[in-house]
Inverse folding.
C-alpha cells in the first residue's frame, strides 16, 4: 500500500490486533510473537477480573460503588469474551483478513472504482478515529482521576486506579508506583481488547459493502458504458459473447461476496448477539454513573465511556445496515445494464436468463444476524437505546427504594 493510498483505518486496526496477537503471521518468529501476545493479553484481562471481583467483594453494600464496579466488570467481561471468541474462531478470522487483504485492500481498480474505495476509506477512518478517541479518553480518565485525587494528600492517602485489596503498604513508595504502573498496563489491554474487534468488524463490513457497490458499477457497465438518463441509452453494446464473459465474472464476484458474508456470520454471529444483549445494560450503568453526584473526573470518565458506547453502537449498526442496502442494490444495477440492446443470439439469451436468477438472489440481502434471531441494522440502534432507557429508569427506581429503606 503506497503512502499516497494509505488506509488509516486498516493501519490502526492492524496495529491493535497485532498487540493482542490476532493478525496474519508470515514467519515462524512472527507466529511465536503472536502467540505470546495472545497469552499475555488473556493474562492481563484475567488479572483485571480478579482485581475487580475482590473489589466488589470488599465493598458490597454501597449501591453507588457496586454499580461503578459492575460497569467495570461488564466492560472486562465483554473484552474477555471477544478475545476467547477470537481464539475459538482464529483460523476463520485470519482467513477473513487474508481474503480482504488480497481482494479488497490490494486489488486493481479503475478510476471510478478507486473513487468508491476512497470514499469507503474516509468513512472507516472517521468512524474508527472517533470511537478510538472516546475509548482512549475513557482510559485517560481512569488514569488521571487517582492522580488528581491524590494531589495534596499524604502518602498514606494516595489512590490507585482500582482498589487493590492486599496486606501490603500499597500507598507507600515503591509499592504504589509499581502497582500503579501495572494497573496502567492492565487498563490499556482492556481498552485494546474492547475496541479492536469492533474496529475490524466495522471496517470489514464497510469494505464488503463497498465491494457490492463496485459490483453494481461493473454490472451496470457489463454491456458497455451506461449513461444514466431519462432516455434509454442508444449506444450499441459490445459483442454479446464479450458481454456474457464479463457478466460471468461479475456473477463469480457476487458469489464470492455472498460466501464471504456467510463466513462473517459464522465468525461474528455470537459476537453480534452479545453486543446487542449487553450494550443496553452497559449504557444504562454509564448513564447512572454520569448522573451520580461523584467527583468530576469520575463523571467525565464515564461520560467519555457513554459517548464511546454510543459511537461504537452506531458504527456497528451502520456498517451492518450498509451491507444490507448495498447487497440489495445489486438487483437494480443488473437491470440498469444495456441488456435490452443485446442481439437474441446464444450468449444474449443466456445472459438474459442468468440475469433473472441474479436479480432473484439479490432480493435476499446479505446481513449479519444475532445468531439468526434477527438482522442487525440501524433499527437495532434505536431498539438498544430504548432498552437502555428502560433499564436506567428501573435502576433509578431501585436506588430510590434503597434510600427510603
Amino acid at each position: 500500500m503506497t503512502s499516497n493510498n494509505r488506509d488509516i483505518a486498516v493501519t490502526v486496526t492492524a496495529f491493535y490486533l497485532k498487540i493482542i496477537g490476532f493478525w496474519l503471521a508470515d514467519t515462524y518468529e512472527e507466529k511465536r510473537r503472536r502467540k505470546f501476545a495472545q497469552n499475555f493479553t488473556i493474562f492481563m484481562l484475567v488479572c483485571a477480573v480478579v482485581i475487580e471481583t475482590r473489589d466488589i467483594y470488599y465493598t458490597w453494600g454501597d449501591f453507588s460503588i457496586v454499580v461503578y464496579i459492575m460497569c467495570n466488570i461488564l466492560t472486562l467481561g465483554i473484552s474477555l469474551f471477544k478475545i476467547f471468541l477470537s481464539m475459538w474462531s482464529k483460523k476463520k478470522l485470519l482467513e477473513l483478513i487474508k481474503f480482504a487483504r488480497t481482494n479488497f485492500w490490494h486489488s486493481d481498480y479503475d478510476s471510478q472504482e478507486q473513487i468508491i474505495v476512497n470514499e469507503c476509506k474516509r468513512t472507516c477512518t472517521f468512524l474508527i478515529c472517533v470511537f478510538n478517541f472516546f475509548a482512549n479518553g475513557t482510559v485517560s480518565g481512569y488514569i488521571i482521576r487517582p492522580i488528581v485525587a491524590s494531589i495534596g494528600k499524604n502518602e498514606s492517602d494516595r489512590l490507585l486506579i482500582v482498589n487493590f485489596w492486599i496486606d501490603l503498604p500499597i500507598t507507600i513508595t515503591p509499592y504504589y508506583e509499581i502497582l500503579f504502573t501495572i494497573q496502567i498496563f492492565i487498563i490499556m489491554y482492556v481498552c485494546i481488547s474492547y475496541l479492536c474487534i469492533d474496529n475490524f468488524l466495522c471496517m470489514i463490513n464497510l469494505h464488503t459493502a463497498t465491494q457490492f457497490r463496485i459490483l453494481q458499477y461493473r454490472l451496470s457497465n457489463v454491456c458497455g458504458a451506461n449513461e444514466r438518463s431519462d432516455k434509454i441509452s442508444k449506444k450499441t453494446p459490445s459483442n454479446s459473447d464479450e458481454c456474457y464473459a464479463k457478466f460471468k465474472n461479475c456473477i463469480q464476484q457476487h458469489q464470492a461476496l455472498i460466501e464471504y458474508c456467510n463466513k462473517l456470520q459464522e465468525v461474528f454471529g455470537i459476537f453480534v448477539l452479545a453486543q446487542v444483549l449487553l450494550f443496553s445494560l452497559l449504557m444504562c450503568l454509564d448513564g447512572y454513573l454520569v448522573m451520580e453526584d461523584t467527583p468530576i473526573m469520575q463523571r467525565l470518565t464515564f461520560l467519555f465511556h457513554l459517548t464511546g458506547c454510543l459511537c461504537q453502537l452506531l458504527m456497528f449498526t451502520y456498517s451492518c445496515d450498509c451491507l444490507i442496502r448495498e447487497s440489495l442494490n445489486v438487483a437494480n444495477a443488473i437491470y440498469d445494464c444495456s441488456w435490452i440492446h443485446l442481439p437474441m443470439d446464444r450468449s444474449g439469451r443466456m445472459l438474459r436468463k442468468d440475469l433473472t436468477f441474479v436479480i432473484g438472489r439479490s432480493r435476499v440481502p446479505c446481513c449479519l444476524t444475532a445468531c439468526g434471531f434477527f438482522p442487525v441494522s440501524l433499527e437495532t440502534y434505536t431498539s438498544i437505546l430504548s432498552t437502555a432507557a428502560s433499564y436506567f429508569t428501573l435502576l433509578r427506581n431501585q436506588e430510590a427504594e434503597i434510600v427510603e429503606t
Observations:
- Confidence is low (pLDDT under 50) at residues 227-237.
- The first helix runs from residue 8 to 20.
- The CA atoms of residues 280 and 388 lie 4 Å apart.
- DSSP finds eleven helices and no strands in the chain.
